[in-house]
Amino acid sequence: MVKHVVIWTLKDFADGRNKAANAALLKEKLEAMRGCIPGLLNLEVGIDFSRTSASGDVVLYSEFASRQSLDAYQVHPKHEAVKAFVLGIREGRWIVDYEV
Q1: Residue 90, pLDDT score
Q2: Is the Cβ–Cβ distance between 33 and 78 less than 8 Å?
Q3: Which residues contact 46 (CB under 8 A, 6 or more apart)?
């Protein structure tokens, strides 16, 4: 099994919405991928409430059946659509992929 974790910081204002609205919309778009991508076993999205200087704004925790499943997810049309949205609203991004 492969775990894929992504943390984003978001712009204060982008695409005509504030950070909170974009975080909620990102969560909605990510969660809409559930059940649509082969090999994606689990997906969880959280929006930070601590708002410290060390905090990200949104986190994605996901589990995949294999590295090949993660690779296929990266180019899946539903993921590509979410990536296009994220590119317009994100300020920073951190990723960790690991096998268990």
Answers
A1: 98
A2: yes
A3: 58, 59, 61
> pLDDT by residue (tens digit) across 45-78?
999 999 999 999 999 999 999 999 999 999 999 9
> Are the C-beta atoms of residues 60 and 3 closer than 8 Å to each other?
no
Give residue for tokens 């082969």.
38
Calculate mean pLDDT across residues 13-40. 97
User: 56: domain CATH number?
Assistant: 3.30.70.100
Instruction: Count how many domains the chain has.
Output: 1
Cβ proximity of 48 and 55 under 8 Å: yes
- Residue 65, both tokens: 């059946």
Tokens matching residue 60: 């994605």
Task: Give this prediction's pTM.
Answer: 0.94
Spatial CA neighbour of 7 closest among 51, 45, 49 = 45
DSSP 30: H
Domain of 24 in residue numbering reads as 2-99
